[in-house]
Design brief:
The complex is a heterodimer.
Chain A: H1 2-28, H2 54-66, H3 89-97, E1 100-103, E2 112-115, H4 129-135, H5 154-163, E3 179-180, E4 188-189, H6 211-226, H7 230-259
Antiparallel strand pairs in A: 1-2, 3-4
Helix pairs in contact in A: 2-6, 5-6
Chain B: H1 4-7, H2 13-26, H3 36-44, H4 47-57, E1 59-61, H5 70-89, H6 99-108, H7 113-141, H8 149-171, H9 176-187, H10 196-204, H11 211-242, E2 258-260, H12 264-286, H13 316-324, H14 328-348, H15 360-381, H16 387-413, H17 423-430
Antiparallel strand pairs in B: 1-2
Helix pairs in contact in B: 5-7, 5-11, 6-7, 7-12, 8-9, 8-11, 8-14, 13-14, 13-15, 13-16, 14-16, 15-16
The chains are: A mainly alpha, B mainly alpha.
């Protein structure tokens, strides 16, 4: 047994090297179209005691607003939800009022536009799928409300995807208007790299907007948008587990006492 | 002490039933003193007597292990599903235009809606965990053998109804897997010769899975759990007629072998519930979507087929059997056959020894069967290509061979171990 372990230990560094080599080969191989597994990142919201990093989520909202929302809707969120991530009631009213929604009919039977209210859903960039497709060379930018839940390993995937734009290896056959991205199945994605340069967003809270920072913040925001109940759920979970643990202990003791005299 | 206690040794299923009823009647005859009102009601509707019979006079083998917890766990799962489902139905809209959004409305805007929906979604998986454990228990300890054939058959009917209910429930959120899962599974019926196509259109209520399909699935998904409750009562009626099987697999002979349900199994069931709820809570609160497919958070789109259409995990072994057969009709027959086969089990297993614990050869084949079944599930999740297909075929053959060849033939070669003299003896040996 020991011998095998020793052999294994000796081989491990080589294995790592070998897998690196395979990886390099994988990246440079022009025939390879399979997506590679997303990078595992550490997130505040992960784990039993996961919490929202509200500052980051707020910055992420700014990234969404200034970058993503040019093409992507977020139609399951209402402006009032922004209060959950730390905006004040007045700030929310202010944010909502920047958008126009169609309402009506009024007493004359006409539809009219009015500034959005906190109770309105996020206003999307396009009126319908057709206009979205026509503006994006036939591609349809998906709604982002559930994007983290709608992909395997969602948060890591979105993070990796936003970081995954590379020059296509020589000889890779690229379709018109597509971009090379190693984390996307098929490796050809319609979306051009949205977050490229440091300082692309001017953060209101003074945080330095590196590319890495903006992507982390955007993922934190999108994770919130997908599962706004996360924090509440996990808190309740920990309490429930403690309760059930104590209950189990008491029940086991009671069971032993009751069965003691069964011979 | 009654005189038959030491000299009555049930050899046949019929004698086993006689012994069971004798013990039942021997147990404490005294009925609790009732006040006038309760007594008056009880004389006209013996509801108190029924409860007392079940909890106090009904004899249970005292050597039941924790494997006997899964029946009550499955029962509580059914209750949880019905209650959480009831509240979901108050907010859900069974219309292709609104279904997806109404589920998200529950998740985001209804007070504790996320909790109710996750209880229901994770609860479905937990229900199947309990059902499978309950069935594995029966397979190992030979609980399907005489005199419990009808109990076993009713159980299979519950299993079938639960699968149908779960399948229709998964369609309701109207995500991509809902739609495509429904399309694939309902299309199976088109394999039926001549009338197949008409049956599928009749199921759909149109020419594809669409609004009429969703609407009827909702209605049936709401109705069927109540049918299941009814059949569970029949299951219990059969159980209370034959009594429980036990790990030793030998019948109860006397009062000494038995114990009343309350307080002994009430407390033991509670312990089981607590452990089960810890597992339930782990998924519910920390990984509520781990048992589902991410594609179901993409709204249904009849124009875009997902790369891999996979059913929920609890259908995967049967899905693998379906795909293992190159012919569509053949695959459908093999898949449904895999469950129909279970009805014949009491007659396929020819061994006189009931409990697998005393059958050394059976044990080996049984463990392979369980591993093979899990492997089939894994194959059902994998794409149907390359060596997976061959592995599915071999696994499918073993699944069938276990029931059709191994169980009938095994007793001819098998040297079984001596079974315990009595349940009392078995209990004393295992609880020192």
């Amino acid at each position: 047994m020991k011998k095998y372990l020793l052999i294994l230990l000796l081989f491990l560094p080589n294995l790592a090297k070998a897998s690196d080599a395979i990886m390099q080969d994988h990246l440079q191989n022009a025939k390879e179209t399979k997506a590679i597994h997303p990078k595992k990142m550490k997130w505040e919201f992960d784990g039993f005691f996961g919490r929202f990093d509200k500052a980051s989520i707020q910055r992420g909202y700014q990234v969404y607003k200034e970058v993503c929302s040019a093409c992507h809707s977020l139609k399951l969120m209402s402006y009032r939800n922004l209060q959950d991530i730390g905006f004040s009631e007045n700030e929310v009213k202010q944010i909502a009022s920047e958008y126009l929604v169609q309402d009506g009919p009024n007493d004359d039977g006409d539809m009219f536009d009015r500034p959005a209210l906190p109770s309105d859903k996020f206003v999307g960039p396009y009126a319908n799928e057709q206009s979205a497709r026509s503006a994006n060379g036939g591609a349809y930018p998906p709604d982002l409300s559930l994007i983290v839940k709608a992909r395997h390993d969602g948060a890591n995937y979105v993070y990796s995807l936003l970081n995954g734009y590379k020059d296509a290896p020589e000889g890779f056959e690229m379709a018109e208007g597509k971009n090379y991205n190693i984390y996307f199945e098929g490796r050809q994605i319609s979306m051009p790299s949205p977050i490229n340069d440091d300082g692309q967003v001017d953060y209101k809270d003074g945080t330095i907007a590196t590319k890495e920072q903006m992507i982390m913040d955007a993922v934190n925001f999108l994770q919130y948008a997908s599962e706004p109940e996360t924090e509440h759920r996990k808190k309740m979970g920990v309490r429930t587990m403690v309760f059930l643990g104590v209950l189990l202990l008491l029940l086991v003791l009671a069971k032993k006492a009751i069965w003691k005299n069964v011979k | 002490m009654t005189n038959h206690e030491n000299n009555f040794d049930p050899k046949t299923p019929k004698e086993e039933l006689q012994a069971f009823h004798q013990i039942h009647n021997d147990l404490d005859q005294s009925i609790t003193e009732k006040n006038k009102v309760v007594g008056w009601i009880n004389d006209r509707l013996p509801i108190i007597t029924t409860i007392e019979n079940t909890l106090k006079r009904h004899p249970y083998p005292k050597n039941l292990s924790y494997w006997w917890n899964f029946g009550s766990i499955a029962g509580i799962c059914l209750v949880i599903q019905i209650l959480s489902g009831l509240f979901l139905a108050m907010h859900y809209v069974p219309n292709t235009k609104h279904a997806f959004d109404s589920v998200e409305h529950i998740m985001r805007d209804v007070n504790y809606g996320w909790l109710i929906r996750y209880i229901h979604a994770v609860g479905a998986s937990m229900f199947f965990v309990a059902l499978y454990a309950h069935m594995v228990r029966s397979l190992y300890y030979g609980s399907y053998k005489a005199p419990r054939e009808v109990l076993w058959w009713v159980g299979i009917i519950i299993f079938l109804l639960t699968m149908a209910t779960a399948f229709m429930g998964y369609v309701l959120p109207w995500g991509q897997m809902s739609f495509w899962g429904a399309t694939v599974i309902t299309n199976l019926f088109s394999a039926i010769p001549v009338v197949g196509e008409s049956i599928v259109q009749w199921l759909w209520g149109g020419y594809s899975v669409d609004n009429p399909t969703l609407n009827r699935f909702f209605v049936l998904h709401f109705l069927m759990p109540f049918l299941i409750v009814g059949i569970v009562l029949v299951h219990l009626m059969a159980l209370h007629t034959t009594g429980s099987n036990n790990p030793a697999g030998v019948p109860m002979k006397s009062k000494k072998d038995s114990i009343p349900f309350h307080p002994y199994f009430t407390i033991k069931d509670m312990v089981g519930f607590a452990v089960f709820f810890i597992i339930f809570g782990y998924f519910l609160f920390f990984y509520p979507n781990a048992l589902g497919h991410p594609d179901n958070y993409i709204p249904a789109n009849p124009l875009v087929t997902p790369a891999h259409i996979v059913p929920e995990w609890y259908f995967l072994p049967f899905y693998a059997i379906l795909r293992a057969v190159p012919d569509k009709l053949g695959g459908v027959l093999m898949m449904f056959g895999a469950i129909i086969l279970l009805f014949f089990l009491p007659y396929l297993d020819k061994s006189k020894v009931r409990s697998g614990a005393y059958r050394p050869l059976f044990k080996k084949f049984f463990y392979v069967f369980v591993i093979n079944f899990v492997f089939l599930g894994w194959l059902g999740k994998s794409p149907a290509e390359g060596w997976y297909i061959w592995a599915s075929r071999i696994s499918t053959m073993y699944y069938y061979a276990y029931f059709l060849l191994i169980l009938p033939i095994l007793p001819r070669f098998e040297k079984t171990l001596p079974v315990p003299e009595s349940i009392d003896e078995h209990y004393k040996k295992t609880h020192k």
